[in-house]
Amino acid sequence: MKKLPHSKYYWIVLLVLVLLINWIAGLVPFRADLTAEGRYTLSKPARQLLTGLNEPVSVDVLLSGEMPAGFRKLANSTNDLLQEFKSAGKTNFRFRFIKPGEGLNDSSKAILYDSLANLGLNPTNIKAQTKEGEGQEERLVFPGAVITHKGRTTAIDLLQGVSSEGGLESLNKAEALLEYKFANAIRQLNQDTVPLIGYLVGNGEPESYQVYDLIENVLKKNYAFRILPIDSVPIIPPVFDALIVAKPSIAFGDDQKLKIDQYVMQGGKMLWMIDNLYAEMDSLQRSQADFIAFDRGLQLEDLLFKYGVRINQDLLQDLNADKIPSVIGSVGGKPQIQLLPWPYFPLLSNYSGHPVAKNMDYVLSQFPNSIDTVEAKGIRKNILLSSSIDTRLLATPARVSWQSIETEDDLKTFNQGNKPVAVLLEGSFSSLYANRATAEERAALQAAGQPFNTSSPENKMIVIADGDIALNAVTQNEGPLPMGMNSYTKYQYANRDFIQNCIEYLVDESGILETRGKDFTLRLLDKKKMEAAKTKWQLINILVPVLLIILFGLVYQWWRKHRYQGKTEK
Asked: Which residues are listed as membrane-spanning (predicted)?
């Protein structure tokens, strides 16, 4: 072995060893994620999904060619993630980066762009460098991907659900959501049966164009869907995986509440969106004056209290609010109108870090109430959405007016801190009717094929103290808008994503939604320190490589001289 380095076959043996090591590394891949937040480590649900694929998944990422730095960074992060997906999915996962429309004529490009728009991918017009010295060109970038599996196709928008106004922070959130978006899209394509979601009606719930986006673009698109009139059935059929109660306006009777209660006791999931007070924008616009928000009298307080929450009889106002046209003065007898934040339309956010709403843009609410959690044995509570710290509560009777802030003193009253508006409840729920249901009511349930239970198995529900959160505006020119879209600014908040996540968390058992909980720490350089130490680091970057080369040359000459000088003396 000692003579091997001096043998003429030394380089052949070394080459064989290198090839052998590379071959073994290919058979047993090893990756080390050295980031504190596990940025490059797939979550267990995503890895299980990919390793369980029995048919190929093809992904076309539409981020190729010259792009601004932000899009290039997003493309690089997507490539890193999909490399991990390929490592887990092996031959059943393949991906590529393409530039949409490259090599096509104008008419073919137009057809392709329309197809992408129908899939929900909207382009962004950017200026990109063509070739060095040739200036810039305008082109359309589709920050998304098209995924095909089992003959089915879907698309994901890599920027959907995050603020378009947050710069690096928004881009960082988009990168944190990449794993969830790709894994969830693959999961939806892979499943052969989908949960059945019911939309409960019979107590004044909207059935008009106000719920068009909810029904057509959320429920029908992702789930089996049925409208369920509560008075048309003796019990709520157990075939429904979850029920939605959206902005009821008529009081619930005990027979109706018993049906809902026993549905929950059988393991049924609930998404409640409740307005306790009557406060509508239409009333303000018609009267052009103040009005008093009053109790709707829904009679749901005892049921929700038993499950662990109380929706308060108040209106929540927040300085962090959406904008509406407001009259700020008059010139020549004509009113001067400007878009200003209106405190009755708070922009809600997530502060708990729960995956349902983490890394998400603001969620728009309208005349929300505050919500409190109360003692309920065995129930775990998580706040999903809250107002900002600049909040105040108007107790019933609450006066609603166009000019709710008139003085500096009014501003000082917005000091009540974050107030919960949406709460997740998990655990074994106790029945409100455990000691209240009559023998006749129990017998009627038994006759309909449903046993009377006093507690539920492990279950979950979400309660939102705002009935408008899943409703959409309707305009004369455009018809139904997406939920969460301001009809004046056309800015779309993350209402649709939030509602989708709520339903998914309730009915999906795969755990894919947990991947939304990833933290991507944004590690920015300190600009002041950079400027102060600029010269030092420039010298280090220039001199250190040169010194290392000189040092290597000196050591090599010394070693060579020492080695061959010894041979000459022998």
From this structure: 9-30, 537-559
